[in-house]
């Protein structure tokens, strides 16, 4: 049995009976029933995932994966590919937005090179799990082989497993890669059946000419490669990215370890779509952090059946939305664990 097959077999649906018990506990708190809205939903979801009606406060980590994309050759980004590696080094030094927000949230940051164009220094503080020096240009053939996808997915599974063994219980995912909104748009078009022009957006801030090139590249890639929307591995191989496949693996590995997984924006959402095609039961482990400014993200959220916690016009990636949302998840568990009940506080309960 392969690692991927074995991990998928271990993923269980969150236990809704535990969610119901947690809601009954919340109903005993000194507040009108359901008056904390989605904070209560979060507490119940995490309880159902963790398998206990009163989970411990979370140990948090965010996995940020990066890679380059051959389709960047088609003029789909406002930045050169060298920026991917430069930003990885910025992450390693602690100077990026994700580092600042993760420090605020008390979350560990794990940085992974899945295949940037130029290898980084081994001592850079970045984990090297390189599948290659960027994917191939999917307008000329598949971005990856099926074997490369499985290798990348299993890297993500491995990292999630390591973090689970280290005591992490709340896992976030983030991304970096010039050209990756093009790959994410292509994957979203595959999984939703929506045409490229209704999915692709301006990414890093491209102009009208580059947006037209981006839409055309996606259209040509889909026509040439014909990815199977029912096969997450095939779709990733045809038009995905090393980091997107790796993040799908983090989701699968985290779900197998009964972790809640907070997904960031558009690129991470496309990884979640692929992961739930590979293992549909992983869907119940996902928490959508925010609604990205990217047009395609709305389609991703609809396809996943999730409602985001935040809507801040974010479009940076890196996992920034995910770590912001981790604060809300932790707040929900503080409410569950620390708020007084009507009985303990000597407050009359109206029953509503």
SSE layout and pairing:
Elements: H1 3-10, H2 16-27, H3 37-50, E1 60-67, H4 82-93, H5 97-105, E2 108-115, E3 127-128, H6 146-165, E4 170-176, H7 180-192, H8 208-225, H9 232-239, H10 242-256, E5 260-263, H11 266-278, E6 286-288, H12 295-304, H13 320-338, H14 342-345
Parallel strand pairs: 1-2, 1-4, 2-3, 4-5, 5-6
Helix pairs in contact: 1-10, 2-3, 3-13, 5-13, 6-9, 6-10, 7-8, 7-11, 7-12, 9-11, 10-11, 11-12
Function: Catalyzes the synthesis of alpha-ribazole-5'-phosphate from nicotinate mononucleotide (NAMN) and 5,6-dimethylbenzimidazole (DMB).
InterPro entries: Nict_dMeBzImd_PRibTrfase, Nict_dMeBzImd_PRibTrfase_bact, Nict_dMeBzImd_PRibTrfase_N, Nict_dMeBzImd_PRibTrfase_sf
Protein name: Nicotinate-nucleotide--dimethylbenzimidazole phosphoribosyltransferase
- Report the end-to-end length measured between terminal Cα atoms: 52 Å
- Based on the coordinates given, report the CATH architecture of the largest domain: 3-Layer(aba) Sandwich
Estimate the global geometry from the Cα principal axes: elongated
Question: Largest sheet, if any?
Answer: 6 strands, parallel
CATH third-level topology of the largest domain: Rossmann fold
What amount of the residues lies in strands?
Answer: 5-15%
CATH class of the largest domain: Alpha Beta
Output the structural class: alpha/beta
Number of domains: 2
Query: How many distinct helices?
Result: 14
Question: Approximately how much helix is present in the residues?
Answer: 40-55%
Radius of gyration: 20 Å
Q: What is the mean predicted local confidence, pLDDT?
A: 96
CATH superfamily of the largest domain: Nicotinate-nucleotide-dimethylbenzimidazole phosphoribosyltransferase (CobT), large domain
């Amino acid at each position: 049995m392969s690692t991927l097959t074995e991990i998928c077999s271990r993923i269980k649906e969150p236990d809704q009976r535990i969610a119901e018990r947690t809601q009954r506990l919340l109903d005993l708190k000194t507040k009108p029933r359901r008056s904390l809205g989605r904070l209560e939903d979060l507490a119940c979801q995490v309880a159902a995932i963790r398998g206990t009606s009163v989970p411990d406060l979370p140990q948090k980590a965010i996995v940020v994966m990066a890679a380059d994309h051959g389709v960047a050759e088609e003029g789909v980004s406002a930045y050169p590919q060298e920026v991917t590696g430069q930003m990885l080094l910025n992450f390693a030094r602690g100077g990026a937005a994700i580092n600042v927000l993760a420090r605020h949230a008390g979350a560990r940051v794990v940085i992974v090179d899945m295949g940037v164009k130029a290898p980084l220094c081994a001592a850079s503080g970045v984990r090297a799990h390189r599948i290659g020096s960027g994917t191939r240009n999917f307008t000329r053939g598949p971005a990856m082989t099926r074997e490369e996808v499985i290798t990348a997915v299993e890297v993500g599974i491995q990292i999630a497993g390591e973090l689970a063994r280290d005591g992490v219980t709340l896992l976030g995912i983030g991304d970096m890669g010039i050209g990756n909104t093009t790959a994410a748009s292509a994957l979203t078009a595959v999984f939703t059946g929506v045409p490229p022009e209704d999915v692709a957006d301006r990414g890093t801030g491209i102009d009208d000419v580059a947006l037209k090139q981006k839409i055309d590249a996606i259209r040509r890639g889909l026509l040439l490669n014909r990815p199977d929307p029912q096969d997450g591995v095939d779709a990733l191989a045809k038009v995905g990215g090393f980091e997107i496949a790796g993040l799908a693996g983090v989701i699968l590995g985290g779900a197998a370890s009964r972790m809640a997984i907070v997904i960031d924006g558009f690129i991470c959402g496309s990884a979640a779509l692929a992961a739930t095609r590979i293992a549909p039961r992983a869907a119940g482990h996902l928490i959508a952090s925010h609604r990205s400014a990217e047009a395609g993200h709305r389609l991703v959220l609809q396809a996943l059946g999730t409602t985001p916690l935040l809507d801040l016009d974010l479009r940076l990636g890196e996992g920034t939305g995910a770590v912001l949302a981790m604060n809300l998840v932790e707040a929900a568990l503080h409410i569950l664990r620390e708020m007084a009940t009507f009985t303990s506080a000597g407050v009359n309960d109206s029953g509503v």
